[in-house]
TrEMBL record:
Organism: Marinobacter nauticus (Marinobacter hydrocarbonoclasticus)
Pathway this chain belongs to: Aromatic compound metabolism; p-cumate degradation; acetaldehyde and pyruvate from p-cumate: step 2/7
InterPro entries xref list: KR_dom, NAD(P)-bd_dom_sf, Sc_DH/Rdtase_CS, SDR_fam
Protein name per Swiss-Prot or TrEMBL: 2,3-dihydroxy-2,3-dihydro-p-cumate dehydrogenase
Family: Belongs to the short-chain dehydrogenases/reductases (SDR) family.
Amino acid sequence: MKLQDSVIAITGGGQGLGRAMAEYLAAKGARLALIDLMEDKLAEAADACKKAGGDAKTYVCNVAKEDDVEKTFQAIINDFGHLNGLVNNAGILRDGLMVKFKDGKLEKRMELAQWQSVIDVNLTGVFLCGREAATRMIENGDQGAIINIASISRAGNMGQSNYSAAKAGVSALVPVWAKELARYGIRCMGIAPGFIETEMTASMKPEALEKMTAGIPLKRMGKPEEIASAVAFIFENDYVSGRMIEVDGALRL
Ligand SMILES: NC(=O)C1=CN([C@@H]2O[C@H](COP(=O)(O)OP(=O)(O)OC[C@H]3O[C@@H](n4cnc5c(N)ncnc54)[C@H](O)[C@@H]3O)[C@@H](O)[C@H]2O)C=CC1
Ligand SMILES: CC(C)c1ccc(C(=O)O)c(O)c1O
């Protein structure tokens, strides 16, 4: 698929990795539908995309809400007339141990609400957006790809029951959707990033950063552009489907 003039929706497109993907695809001439909760961040990201050479429109939407998602994808079709791809990128962290001994007493530490909030956004949100994008693409006769952003934590990371379960779930959806959607000319792939440089890591003390990167075989964190280029590769290569790409500097948790 050529990215020039393709319409690509990115959830969580307002900041971080989603914004980096948007700018990278915009520079290749893609037309971006940026979806996020934060209106101000969306406006900044859309401006950056336009400067990079692509068109961009913004949609305030909670990916965990079925109504919001249905309205958003209807609006995208109304605005652009087509949809060629989706990057399911929006995600949240609410880390915590499941149980812990404190003062000789065993405590339940991960609250149900803490579990559910991550499942709602990181797993149900991916399902809702994937289902809506596929429906609109099939109705319109548009071919393309859906990409689920997972994490190295999908293998199971201490303190991340909720997050690891959701990321394992979105990884499992990749071969399911690849098989179900191939007949409509829609591919599905996943990316599992390791530790990536963000605004949060930029503000960390050098000693803490050094400790974090010491265990990574490539001895550095990944750059947002390295995730964005994996996204572009997937859209541009019409024979990749049903698999995960691990972009993690060879780290294993
Ligand atoms: N930064 C990293 O090192 C890694 C990130 N990831 C994954 O990459 C993705 C992006 O991560 P970052 O850019 O670091 O995060 P971030 O927190 O900087 O950006 C996430 C974006 O998603 C949006 N969002 C959150 N909940 C939403 C909802 N309910 N509806 C719509 N938008 C919502 C936020 O407003 C924000 O703009 C996530 O899925 C994350 O799990 C995976 C591995 C490593
Ligand atoms: C534990 C993994 C590598 C990780 C680290 C940081 C973030 C983040 O800041 O959003 C993640 O989403 C992760 O999956």
